[in-house]
Amino acid sequence: MSKRVFIGGAWPYANYNIHIGHLAALLPADVIARYYRQHGDQVIYASGTDCHGTPITQRALKEQVEPSEIAEKYHNSDVNDFQDLNFTYDSYGATYMDWHQKEVQDIFKNLYDNAFLYDKQVNQVYCEHCNKFLADREIGGTCPVCGADARGDQCDTCLTAFDPQELKEKHCLICGGDTTLKPNHELVFSLSQFQHQLQDYFEENHGYWRANAVKETAKYLEQGLPDRDATRNLNWGIPVPFEGYEEKRIYVWFEAVLGYLTSGRQAAQNLGIDFDEFLRNSPDLETYYVHGKDNIPFHTVIFPGLLLAMGKDIQLPKHIISSEYVTMNEEKMSKSKGNLITVRELIQSFHSDSIRFFFLMNNPEKKDMNFNAEDLINTHNKILVGGFGNFVNRNLSFLKKKFDGVVPEGKVDPSIQELTERLYDTIGGKIESGDIRSAVEEMIHYIQTANKYYDNGKPWVLVKEDPSAFADITATCLYIMANMSNLFAPVIPDGCLRLREILKLPIQESWKPATINGSLTLGDCPVLYERILNN
Prior knowledge:
The chain is α/β, with parallel strands linked by helices. 47% of the residues lie in helices and 15% in strands. The two termini are 51 Å apart.
């Protein structure tokens, strides 16, 4: 029975080029999307660029341009990076686009009409020198929980969320001066109303979540869910659609997570799908939300709370694929610290398959991953060139040399066929559960098995001593290659496509065992990957 599968990849901020920390967190989503499409399921894979909020205005001030220019610049940069790494989004939008803003405003009105948004006078952090209420990212101080340097409403060190007022030793990050508290009025989302429903949701679904998501969400629920401001005094963002709030904008935490719905709806329209029906909660729907661990509460508490408030029969996030951090020199990647490598820098130096394979093989699923370019080169040379590429090349080059590319007909080894058929279930099951590293390990084992089979069979000897046995080993090796091109495609799509072209297989991969035409005549057989010299 086919499934409906919705996959939401986290929305990177449009305040700089995406870096390898984003890449490691978001790559699993593309693997999952590719797998389900191969499986024959109906997939919507949606994401976009988060173009509102203080980080964008801060970047605009730094570059002395309008926020809209920054948003468009980095959105286009993100689009190019994802395309060059073979991400297969069905829709990749931006929060400044009209269709996103209109739907967010409609949802905002709906929640207001149903009393889930209310006006409240609150004390907010104010800078007398700058003469303005400060946005979260404009407030610095010391975390009230762990004592680390923090800013805004969340500590990046211990991941605790709090009201900015709770920061100790608060100061303005714009001018460096002290701050005061002043009364202001905001529209507030009554998240606390959904405490019990979200607790029940957590109990029912956390078995599908990564361990870090379980831990962080349990902490939030135990603390008790506070209502959250849904507006801010800003001049860049989605306008609040009510009179009396002309100087307000919808808070970025509210509108950004709704991007899964707005971008998903765009994809559905392009695919001719009823999106509301697609997201209807039922056993044949699987939803995946893929992000870094600093975004956990937005996906496991806030977004589900908004969905509950909307009152529609939409499946709450089921699979939470939340990665740990990528570090450089054992420190968290950070745009503000300049401690990062951008995706564009990697693309300029390495093949997309090499980048994808390395970050998926070492994906920070349970602990932080420390990046080293030398490790990427060694992985490429050892596994993609020396393992996968070598197995393909020595088989095909031998056939071209000895038989002018005409493949002799033989029988596939039943033990290899049985192993291969099991792998579809094994690798598929691991991808479905978000265990991508383990799925890649299974692929590596298959490569090792293939090379061992070739070495033990000694086809270069059998071609003279036992042509029939040689034909069987050759048929088996070609069978392995054909299935590698299916099984590995979610991870290294370029190499698998080239292999399918060499073997004259249909371009579209599937998730079922493939066979080779016995009358195959090989054309050109270029190597799949070139060795990288480590300077």
